[in-house]
Amino acid sequence: MRQIWQSITAPWRALPARQRTIITGGIAILLLLVFPAVDKSMKWQTLNDVTDVLVLVILALGLNIVVGYAGLLDLGYAAFFAIGAYTTGILTWPPHGLEFNFWIVIWAAVIVAALCGIVIGTPTLRLRGDYLAIVTLAFGEIVPIVMRNLGNQTLSIGPWRLMENFNLTNGVQGLNPVGRPWIGSFEFGFDPTPWYYLILLIAAFVIFANVRLQDSRLGRAWMALREDETAADCMGVDPIKTKLLAFALGASFSGFSGAFYAAKLQAIFPELFKFNLSIMILCMVILGGMGNIKGVVIGGMLIQLFDRVLLTQTTLIARGVGQTLHIAQLATVDLSLWRWFFFGLAMVIIMVLKPEGLFPSAARRAELHAAEESKTAETIG
Fold it and tell me: What pTM was estimated for this model as a whole?
């Protein structure tokens, strides 16, 4: 069987690597472009879910800059997603009387998220390891609480009232509706197809930016810091400035996707940006392969496929078996409630069997194996 497979794939393997990449990329782009037509003709009704998956993939690509390139453990990344979404909501919510154009607001969301990344990064990026993770975790918890409590605020100093019943985020009720994008006379409405193509365009821009950053001088500086901060510092890399750029750029991509998500959902609430979201995005990066753009994209899609399709279908099958065998517990089981157990189990297995991820970059794989070989040599010696 192996010989037959090798003979079938021999012409493909004989092609230059660059040519294989171009062909594979062209096929992938073609499939993505025709997917809405296929989804409609097959009556799958999955286009809306696929659009949401692409939003999370963009988030994972942004986190990959922070975790995969710079080696900084960020456990509160969803906070920047919330900041981008709320920036869009605040600037387009009708009661505020602003209602700016979405194409201006989306860049405002990017800038605000990047500035927040700089603000939180400036005092904290001198920390390392667990301490940095704890600070980012706290930031991720603080932002939704702040958004929840910025409705109907009154600020006074003695007898002077500087602000009375100021409603910025509408509290727990959230902002609804949020302004939608327009192109000429066409408004993005309830049809999921225009939203799909818009997020596809945004995803293409984010992937292109990631590729350029990875191959740039800044990208190499991030990776040098990730492997040995002291050595990178001795070679002229400014650790604080370089880390801050990673934090700001990662936050900007999160703000980008947050702005799109708010406009598509037409309503944003503090409950949408819980700690669980940060963990899911981190799982995408780790599963796919930290530092590898293709791996992060595939890892994100695999996790969402498992969460949105496999768990649902497996639940239906388990209930059918339970009803047939008259097992009450199985007939009413809901495996989607166990998603975090399965995610945690998958992460443990990946860390034990393949710590570099399913689709690691060549550099990352070599680094990890070199570390393992040096430990083995020290043990033998």
Answer: 0.87
